[in-house]
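Researcher: Sit down with what I've pasted below and flag anything odd:
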Amino acid sequence: MSYICVTNVRFMKSKEKSAGYKPNTAISKVEESAPVYRSVKALPQVKDFTYNEFKKIADKTPFTQAEWAAILHVSERTLQRYAKNNGSFAPINAERAVQIEKVIKEGKITFGKVENFYNWLKGNPYMLEGNLSFDSLTTYEGIQKVLTQLGRIQHGILA
């Protein structure tokens, strides 16, 4: 569950206009209101994310079912079961699928074709933080590294 921190911000009146201002008064404690945390509801794109919506993403990629299972952290059998009855994915798996869709779009922009991006990723490309691999798509940090490297390539920074 995600949280948003909301604080009340108070602005001080200018010294000339404030009748209660005392220049020689020492302030020993900063008065600040406590943050209020509110939960954020699931994003509409991952709420009730069904297999049909996943299939639209999966059809754009050359990934195998085993690769998708590894990326989403589910078994191949679970994917088959979702396919059979158009089951809904857990929000964490749905969010990962949406993240991968973003990576695929960036890969297509960078390399022209999704297949070229797939082949690049399968070739364990080098980047400043170490080598990338297809397994990079199985973690949030790995996905961010892939997106960072794609951005570098798009801007001509190949290291």
In short: Residues 51-154 form one domain. The two ends are 36 Å apart (CA to CA). Residues 91-111 form the longest helix (21 residues).
